[in-house]
């Protein structure tokens, strides 16, 4: 006679008590392949942190020149320039502010 009971002991040292922790941390994302990280166009040493708003060259966090660009309506937004563009008044409206006064 076949025994089809739910309480059939299968394996003495096998415990079926699994922790009910949330296992939603699945690490199987390979669709977004990141391209090779470019190096800073100024120092060529560090990874590009942000693109220059003027020439588009990638600059690292050290070489990036942070500027606050005014839009005319009272709003300003952050921008990053490469050292060359940061000193170019044609590119950076705040370039004059960077020059030492009375130089
Ligand atoms: Zn750099
Ligand atoms: Zn630039």
Number of continuous helical runs? 2
Low-confidence stretches: none
Broad structural category:
mainly beta
The main pleated sheet reads as:
2 strands, antiparallel
- The separation of the N and C termini measures 104 Å
Tell me, rounded to a whole number, the average pLDDT.
78
- Placed side by side, the strands forming the largest sheet appear as 1-2
Rg, alpha carbons: 29 Å
Annotation, overall tally of beta strands: 4
Bound molecules: zinc ion
What is the approximate shape? elongated
Write down the secondary-structure element order: EEEEHH
Explain this structure.
The longest helix has 4 residues, at 83-86. This protein has a domain at 48-98. Helices cover 8% and strands 18% of the residues. Strand 3 and strand 4 (76-81) form a beta hairpin. The relative contact order is 0.13. The protein has two helices and four strands, in the order E-E-E-E-H-H. It binds zinc ion (2 copies). One zinc ion binds next to strand 2.
Compact overview of the structure:
This protein has 103 residues and is mostly beta strands.
Write the layout of secondary structure elements.
Blueprint: E1 48-51, E2 58-60, E3 65-70, E4 76-81, H1 83-86, H2 95-98
Antiparallel strand pairs: 1-2, 3-4
The structure holds zinc ion (ZN) (2 copies).
One zinc ion is lined by residues 52, 54-55, 57, 81-82, 84-85.
